[in-house]
């Protein structure tokens, strides 16, 4: 089913959802922690709660889609709820309703992450095996292009040049990003063509038994080690990413404008890294390329934690973008490469679940470190960055056990 039209629509959706992601990533985190005084620990609990919600629903929805519904159906519903919950969160933010904003941020994050369990497996439909790394890389490049656009669109609101509600500048950025995300996601939701599956009668007991059986088949030694590796290194990368705007604020005292321009530079290198790494993975091997990426993270995180020279730090952050983009592109293509035939939806459901399950551990460790070492001032954030580096090494060990050719 490889068509230029479907590939274009697939990458367009990656562009659209990244707009709302980057704006909430940069501005909501700072609004709730820095402006409203919510603790780092409680903010990080939102990621843990969204992971628990995924844990309770993702395996079942993955099995359901494999046998009854089309992936695009799940994507439509999850996208609608993403826009709804994030939209309510944005309204709560401009009204300074802290608790309600946190609740709807958690629900919006859950729906946003759930959408990828429907979206990512479509890679297997639009690209043959030998091109999945390349197409995945193109999708990642579109994702970072969307983040770039999202930051530019939010900049007039974050600087106070535009104000829709007379609220905090950071809170003002949120609702426009939700609207733009939903509008730009419509082409994928309306025009993407997926092969139709014959629906079968749905029986909860039968489905649960089938899910248990297919899960047992899926979780071979090879897959278990891949999921373990992904859980461990993603724990570090995702935790660092979610808290990075706060790190920049508390450690370096950057203004939002400086943060925006720094993120723009990082997004450019991230897009390049995602595209190039997918191309290289098709030629060097997906596992080998991913292992090289993990070794790079072992160096990058300590650098970010220990550097005290402004110019060197900025250079390290921009260089980090190459690795950040490569991380997602090659992880996704590796999963597609080793997943068993006939179980891609379920495999990617567990892939998405593993991605977010790391939020059960990483954010708690980060939150405990930075909330428990307040006497150390901003250095506690540097210690938090060092604390999560160990997960990368453990992830590399688990990845070494994966047989790519199996």
Brief overview:
The chain is mostly helical and 406 residues long. It is 81% helix and 0% strand.
Structure description:
There is one protein chain. Helix content is 81%, strand content 0%. With 406 residues, the chain is mainly α. It is globular, with a radius of gyration of 20 Å. The model has no long low-confidence stretch (mean pLDDT 81).
List the helices and strands and how they pair.
Elements: H1 4-35, H2 40-67, H3 71-94, H4 98-119, H5 123-126, H6 132-158, H7 169-172, H8 174-191, H9 204-218, H10 221-252, H11 256-284, H12 286-306, H13 310-338, H14 344-357, H15 362-372, H16 379-387, H17 390-400
Helix pairs in contact: 1-6, 1-8, 1-10, 2-4, 2-9, 2-14, 2-15, 3-4, 3-8, 4-14, 6-11, 6-13, 10-13, 10-14, 10-16, 10-17, 11-12, 11-13, 12-13, 12-16, 12-17, 15-16
């Amino acid at each position: 089913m490889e068509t230029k039209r479907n590939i274009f629509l697939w990458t367009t959706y990656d562009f659209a959802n990244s707009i709302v992601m980057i704006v909430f990533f940069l501005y909501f985190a700072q609004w709730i922690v820095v402006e409203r005084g919510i603790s780092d620990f409680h903010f990080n609990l939102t990621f843990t709660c969204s992971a628990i919600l995924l844990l309770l629903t993702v395996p079942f929805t993955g099995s359901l889609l494999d046998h009854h519904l089309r992936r695009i159906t799940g994507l439509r519903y999850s996208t609608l709820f993403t826009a709804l919950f994030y939209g309510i969160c944005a309204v709560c933010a401009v009204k300074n309703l802290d608790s309600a904003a946190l609740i709807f941020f958690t629900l919006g994050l859950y729906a946003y992450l759930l959408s990828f369990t429907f979206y990512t497996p479509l890679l297997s439909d639009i690209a043959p095996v030998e091109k999945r790394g390349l197409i995945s890389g193109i999708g990642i490049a579109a994702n970072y292009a969307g983040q770039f656009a999202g930051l530019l669109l939010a900049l007039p609101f974050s600087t106070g040049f535009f104000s829709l509600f007379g609220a905090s500048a950071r809170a003002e950025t949120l609702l426009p990003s939700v609207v733009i995300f939903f509008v730009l996601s419509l082409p994928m939701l309306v025009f993407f063509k997926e092969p139709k599956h014959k629906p079968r009668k749905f029986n909860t007991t039968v489905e649960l038994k089938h899910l248990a059986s297919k899960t047992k088949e899926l979780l071979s030694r090879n897959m278990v080690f891949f999921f373990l590796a992904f859980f461990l290194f993603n724990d570090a990368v995702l935790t660092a990413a979610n808290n990075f705007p706060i790190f920049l604020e508390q450690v370096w005292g950057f203004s939002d404008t400086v943060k925006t321009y720094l993120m723009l530079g990082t997004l450019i290198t991230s897009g390049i890294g995602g595209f190039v790494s997918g191309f290289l993975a098709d030629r060097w091997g997906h596992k080998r390329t991913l292992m090289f990426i993990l070794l790079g993270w072992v160096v990058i995180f300590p650098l970010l934690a220990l550097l005290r020279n402004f110019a060197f730090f900025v250079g390290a952050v921009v260089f980090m973008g190459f690795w950040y983009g490569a991380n997602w592109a090659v992880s996704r293509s590796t999963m597609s490469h080793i997943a068993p035939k006939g179980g891609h939806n379920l495999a990617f459901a567990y892939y998405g679940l593993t991605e977010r399950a790391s939020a059960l551990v990483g954010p708690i460790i980060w939150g405990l470190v930075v909330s428990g070492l307040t006497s150390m001032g901003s250095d506690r954030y540097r210690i938090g960055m060092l604390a999560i580096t160990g997960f990368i090494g453990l992830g590399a060990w688990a990845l070494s056990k994966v047989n790519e050719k199996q």
